[in-house]
Amino acid sequence: MKIPFIKFLAKHSFDMSFVIGKQLVDCLENKYDYALNNDLLKIEIQNGKFILHVLNTSNFLKFINILEDEANKKNNLTDREDAASKNIHTHNVNVSHSFLLVRNFNELNNTKTIFIDKDKVLTEHNSKRICLVVENLEVFCKLETLSCRLNVQLNNVDIIYGSGKSVNNKLNTKFFSLYNTVLCFFDIDKSGFDMYFSLKNSLKDIHTRVENIFVSEIEKYFSVSNPLPSGFENIVDYKKKNNDLLFHMDEYVLDLMRKYETGIEQEMFLTSLGELNDR
After folding, report:
1. Portions of the chain given CATH number 3.40.1360
2. pLDDT, tens digit, 9 for 90 and up, residues 163-174
3. Whole-model pTM above 0.85?
4. Which side of the chain, N or C, has fewer Cβ within a 10 Å radius?
5. CATH 3.90.1070 correct for 97-278
């Protein structure tokens, strides 16, 4: 949240509109009704960008000071229990624990829950050298269906349910660092790549290798896929920005997304190409 920059602009302009990031939008949403009702600002979306219109500079600065105070209080909180005791919205504070579901190949009924806090992994687990993180629950439960379409021996890996963006909870780093290699099997869209890069960055100093894994004949799935929003504004710029994090297959799949102008939800891979072609 770039509050100092917002304050600078507010002090130097009385009729201003400027582009803001999604993070600040999320922060403003908690106070948006207040700001709107008091003619402080309005937010519009133009060409996919968030535009903030400041309507009253003086009162807007007071409003920003309120946000700053809340941000400072948040930085001094230990957990959600602490937030609640200080009458601060608990959803703005990280939970003190995280958990991951882990299972072996063909052993869904023996799925294990791994609990992690800020200090350590609380659940004993004899981890294998490699884990495969699956974004969505449907695929986690039916992964055996994909055994012939993934270039990995599933009986040699720990299969982990990532639960969407929850996989990037910083507490999970302690558990993922137990592995030599973390394989990511996520949706093929911007959100999936963002999660992949975030996990990669969180483990780069621990020397745990993180890489995407894709089904075989991936382009054929693109060719029969119904168009879905990929979330990208410009894939070429995205590749340049993350060039140091990309492997060859990552670049190949990003190029396919650009070619076919679509993303793919990973549940689609549960169906064979033969079945898709017959539909």
Report:
1. 97-278
2. 988 999 999 999
3. no
4. C
5. no
